[in-house]
Structures are given as C-alpha cells and as structure tokens.
Amino acid sequence: MQKLSFLDALRGYAILGVVLTHSTRSLQQLPDWLYHIGIQGSRGVQLFFIVSAFTLFYSLERYTVSRQIPLQDFYTKRFFRIAPMFYAALLFYLSFDLINQFIGVSTAYPDVTLSLLVSTLTFTNVLHPEWLFSLVPGGWSISNEFLFYACVPFLFKWIKTARQGIVWTTSTLVLSIVLHLLTEQSQPFMDVKSFAFYWFPNQLPIFLMGVTLYLVWRDQSWSVRTHYAMTFGSIALLIILGITPYDVYSAFPKHALFGLAFCLLALGLSGIRGRILNHPVVQYIGHISFSLYLVHFFVLDWVNHLFNETWTQQYNVTTVWMLTFLVTLVVSGVIASVTYRVIERPGIQFGRSIIRRRQEQQQRKQTA
What we know:
Elements: H1 5-25, H2 32-39, H3 44-63, H4 71-103, H5 114-121, H6 139-158, H7 162-183, H8 195-198, H9 200-219, H10 224-243, H11 254-269, H12 280-287, H13 289-314, H14 317-367
C-alpha cells in the first residue's frame, strides 16, 4: 500500500485533540471560553473515523479488482489490527482499577459486570446505553469502528463514485437527525442523554464522509494553490467551530460540521509537500495513535494524582492545563511507542500470516 503521509498527520492531529479534551475535562476551573475550546478536541474521534474509512476504501480498491471482498481475509486483518492491543488494554485496566482502589487514586472506570465484560470483548458496547462506557476507556469509538467494518463489504459494493458517496452521506445524516428527534423523549435515550451522540447511526455519516473523501481525492486533481486554499479555509472553519459553544448533540449535529471541515483539511494536506502541517513528528504521533489513545487515560489519571495539587499551588490554572496536556502526551507517547512495537505490530503480522497460510492452502487445493 502506497504510503500516504498526510493520513498519518491527520491521525496525529486527531489524537492530539483527544488528549487535549481529556486533559481539559480534568480541570473544571478553567475559564469557560478556554474550557469550551479544549473539549472540542474530542472531535478528533470523528477525524479518526474519516481517516479509517478513507484508508479502507483506498486499500480495498487497490487489491480487489472485482469489488468482491474476500470476507475471511478482510475480517481477519481488521480483527488483528485492533484486538491484540485492545485486549491487552482491557487486561491492564481491569488490574489498574484494582490497584488504584488500593492506592486511593480517583478514577471513573465502570464496575465490572458480565454484560459489560461480554460487550467489551465483542466490541458491541455502543449498542446499549448500559454498556456504553466499556471496561476499556474510549471503547465506544472502537465499537463504532467494528460496526463500520461489518458494513464495509456492502458499502464497498454499492458506493463507487463521489456522487453516490454524497448521497449516502446525506441520507444517513438526515436519518440520524430524524432518529434523534423521534427517540430523544423515549427510553433509553432519556436516561443516558449522550447515547444519542455515541451510538452507531449518529456516527455512520462520519464514516461515509471518509468514503466520499477518498472518492473525491481519487477522481479529482487541483493546483497547489487550491490545496493551500482548502487547507487554510478548513483551518479557519475549525477555529470558528472551536470557539462556538460545545454541544454533545444539537438539532444539526455539530460533529458533522467538524467532519466536513476535516474532509476539506484532508484534501488540502493531500496536495501540500511542505513539512509544516505534515511534520514528521505529527506523522509519528499518528503512526502510534491507536496505542496512544488506549494508554493516555491511565497516564492522565496518574499525572493528576502526582502533580495536580503541586502544580495548582505553584501556577495559574492555564499553565496547569498546558503542563497536564504536555506531560500526559509525552509519557503516553513513550509507552505507546513500546506497545506499538511489542503488541500492535506483532498482532498485525500474525493476522497477515494467517491470511497468507490460508491463501497458500487454497492454491495447493487448486493445483492438486
């Protein structure tokens, strides 16, 4: 697969936003305007979804001439891309929560129940509000990712042009708005207000934006000047969205506006060869972003436990916010660099070896 460096850069920006938003939520005493800007970083999850859908369709079109996906190979590859690190994180957080209770570190991890354990193991926790916040922090996004994988073979067969992508994206976005209006006064949506945001029908249009982004990128070409205009236009739009009040869910989903801005940013960066926005450091952060996403939660808990009281006495709240973000990012990055090499990459290689052995067996049967 041809290396598309701007995708790693986008993943880097996505995880920077996610770490920023969790660092912000731990400091409720921030000025309101700064707090609202900081928690907008949670939209980085939608950027992950867009990049994921783009990458999947890009790789499938390169290796699947007939648009018939070998399902066993596809799901084997996707499972071993995610599951080894995710299950390692699950084991860690189960033990980490016990250790924290013993030491007295404050955490917000849910209690272990059989239904929560099963839904976490099967990546289905986003299907029910009681399972929403899985035993792995941030597991709702990974559950949505797996549900999208289930849709990919059908979407890949049906969506072949940018126009079709736009129709599918618009249709699912309208459907998500209608579903929200129909369900907001009913159970279980009244009990868990945020479920309307996290559940799959509300996130599917974002994945489809990524599909449409790929098809537009594949079929269109622009001048370097146009790419720069797209980049700076998207940055301006993101700033405007960032300074507006944060809404978990509104009549027109704000995360969809962020999704459109992210698509414009991706198109802009795809044609810029400079190393400022496509910096190698940001690309590397994007390269290890999955591990970084999973480990930064416990790092943040310990940064707050060890340093928050001391920093609060020595610095103003804005400085504490910046220190919390930077220390969490650096420590998480170091740990993620190790887990990527020790867990993620071997898991990916193991999945590929299973596919390779299966293909070799099929070839031997055909020639026998």
